[in-house]
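The data are quoted verbatim here:
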Amino acid sequence: MTDLFPPFEPGDEPRPRRIRPVPIRVLLPNLITLLSMCAGLTAMRLAVEDKLEMAVIAILIAAVLDGLDGRVARMLKSTSRFGAELDSLSDFLSFGVAPAFILYTYGLHDLKSVGWVVALLFASASALRLARFNVAIDDPNRPDWQKDFFVGMPAPAGALAGLLPLYLHLLGAGRVPGTAVLEAIYLLFIAFMMVSRIPTFAGKSFGTRVPRSSVVPLMIGVVAVVALLVTHTFEMLTLLTIAYLALVPLMVKRYRSLERAHPTTPVNAPTPPTPPAGG
């Protein structure tokens, strides 16, 4: 009976564990990431409802939010491993699954199972690209100059570039026999760019320091681009996509020149033998 009713003294009960409140600065970047994911999910719903224009705009909003969450986290000094993992999951949905689904709903379904395979390959390439990016973040031996370049095309850029056939359709380009085949080939090219080791521009250090003489032109340029995106959305998305793809060879050339200017010695490289005396 003593086991059923142990002696009890007032004040001996365990004190409840106090849960520390989470600062708003820690929640804000993760909330932005969740909004980006919701935009990607909404884009898929809009595609099902045949509202392709709004679906593209939802992907664009997801890309803008994805660019903000990391910068906000760094500004507020609230970066965390949880935020990085959440960002990767959100990016896979918004820039891997959603664009593939939209393009299949738009035109790839004309190829039936082949079109579905192309959509699967695009989504898989996005997942592999994000996984490799997460591994590269943990590389302590990566030179600082390489931080201005991505290895392969980043997932948000791949999503916006992959939607180029849809931009052209929304601008009035008609579909002819064989259009779905060309769209599938183009989407496979973008998927290859994401999983390749071709360096593309990252610009992570861009904007940390701006020369005083460039402040006014930069502000005017940003306002002009945003205004054109709002008023001529699909024309600007088409031009920006073509310009981005055209700049890839220049980025490769720039990367190679910096690589020659900053030779690095592998971490596990063997020590060169000491030459014999008198040699």
Observations:
- The CA atoms of residues 273 and 279 lie 13 Å apart.
